[in-house]
Each structure stands twice: as C-alpha cells, then as structure tokens.
Amino acid sequence: MSEIVISKGSYSVTIYPNQIPEEYANKLTVLPIPQTASNQSSGTKDTKILDLLRLTHTIIIKGYITASAEASSATNDSGGASTLTAKECKEILKTIIEGAGANGGTCALAYDGDTYNGYIEKVIMTEKAADDPATRANVEEGRYEINLTFVEGVAIGV
After folding, report:
1. Do 49 and 104 lie in a common domain?
2. Over the range 3-20, which residues count as b (16 or more CB within 10 Å of their CB) and which as e?
3. Which of 51, 60, 61, 157 is the most core-located residue (most Cβ within 10 A)?
C-alpha cells in the first residue's frame, strides 16, 4: 500500500496506511409529493428527487506515523529520511491541521500518484508502544496510530 504524504506550506509528514476507504456522497433533495384525501385511492405518488450533483469526496486514512516517518518543517527541512521522533512527526501533523501558519487555504494529500487538495476534517492520534517494548531503547521509538478524515475541495470564494 502506498505511503500518504500530507503537506501544507513548508510542512509535510508521511503516514503509513493500513486501510484507506474512500467515500463519494451525493447530496440529494427529496421532494415528497402531497397526497390529498380525494386522490388517495389512486395509490401513492412517486417521490421526486432533485439531483444537483453536489458530490463530496472523503478519504479516510487509517495508518500510523513513526520515528522513521519522513517529515519536514520550516525548522527541520530534512527532505529525505528523517531523524525526527514519532512525537515530532505528530507535532508537524498537528501544525498542518492547525493551518501551518498560513491564512486559510487547503492542504495537499499525495497518494498513489495522485494529489488531492482539501481540508483535514478530523484526526484521532493514538500513542502506541513499539512492537517489542522490551527491546526499544527509549520511549521515542513508539508510534502514533492515525485515523484521519480528509475532504477534497476548495475554499468558498476560490
């Protein structure tokens, strides 16, 4: 499964996914046709649906970041394999979620050769121990399980 890179401005972090469900939702307007007492004997009327083709593309990422995750920021632009701890990578992701010091704008999600622009709607970060706690040198070798919801789109007025 391809790695996912989330970036905004000079900040970026790599997420190693376990699962990536994508959802396409189309907001339909349902218009029920009124029934009167005088025409009830003719049966129910078909419900009318107005489809304005307002699609929402949501990508849900279930994965993790580790100390080996690639990450960069304005203060640590390593470009390649990072020496950042898992906690530092988590802080960079948190900075991206908080806007990365920019006045609005989307962030980018790169996955499987495609780049999507949009917004991070929700993130749950759960600290996890390394696979074998007995062999790890220090607590910084742990990892963070990430459950992230990304909605593709642009800002109003753009």
Report:
1. no
2. ebbbbbeebbbbbbbeeb
3. 61
